[in-house]
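One such shown below:
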Amino acid sequence: MRRHWRILCFLMMLSLTLVSLVGCGMPMEKSAAASQLTVKMLDVGQGDAILIRTPDETILIDTGDTDEAAKLKAALDKEGVKTIDKLIITHPHRDHLGGSAMVFQNYAVKAVYDNGQPTTPKFYRDYLKTIKVKNIPYKTLRDGDRLDFGGGVSFTILSPTEEMVQEGGREADGKINLNLNSLVGRLAYGNFAMMFTGDAEKPTEQALLKRHPAGDLRCQVLKAGHHGSKTSSGLAFLKAVQPEVALISCGAGNSYRHPHASVRRNYEKQRIDFYRTDVNGTITVESDGQTYRVTPERGVKNSNKGN
């Protein structure tokens, strides 16, 4: 009888302890998941397509290339995407904008943002025409603009400036380089930050360093500029941003040799881990606003496969 009484007392004390812990705010798995930010760099070949989910919104940054639209659709359907609250196009190159026709056709797009840099190819003219025909709210973004992604997640534009767009991405030799005016934005969620760079190259990186204090640039995760090309990820830029991890979107066996050996060396010098879609497949970043984790679909980090 005494033994039964002692067991009963123990169970009562255990029950009271559990109630106390819950009452004191121990995080529950369900509530933690509900507040989480998820960023997926989708494996869509040589182009860019990045899916961002918050408790309130679904955002897609770039849409990959025209000939990879089926890959993008498969990835979005796998994620259960029906509506895209914000479609952001970093610049009007086919490997970033090409899949937009498929996106407009298959998903409800609530708003579109880009850098307002005009160009002449038919896929760009069709993109603007579709926005107009579907009457989708459309806005061009400039340095200093800020978007609310919901759930405490903000996205601040760092480049281009109005002056840069007016100049048209003109290089010193007079040639037009649309990469120079790629949208660059910094996502912030609590103590976590991630920078998105489109195909921004070293002149854009250097201009960023002149216009913005280091504190506005620092982040834990960097979306590598221009698919890991040697035109981007300069040492001065990496030293200012101080990322712990870089994500590279590039196609398997690409003829550009992305990610370039010099970029991989820069990451090594700065002790930056990196993942690449050609080796790792889709790469997922999750954060609760305090910590974060990076999960590749396959493979390991810091792969030096290729040239």
The CA atoms of residues 148 and 154 lie 5 Å apart. The first strand starts at residue 37 and ends at 41. Residues 2-23 form the longest helix (22 residues).
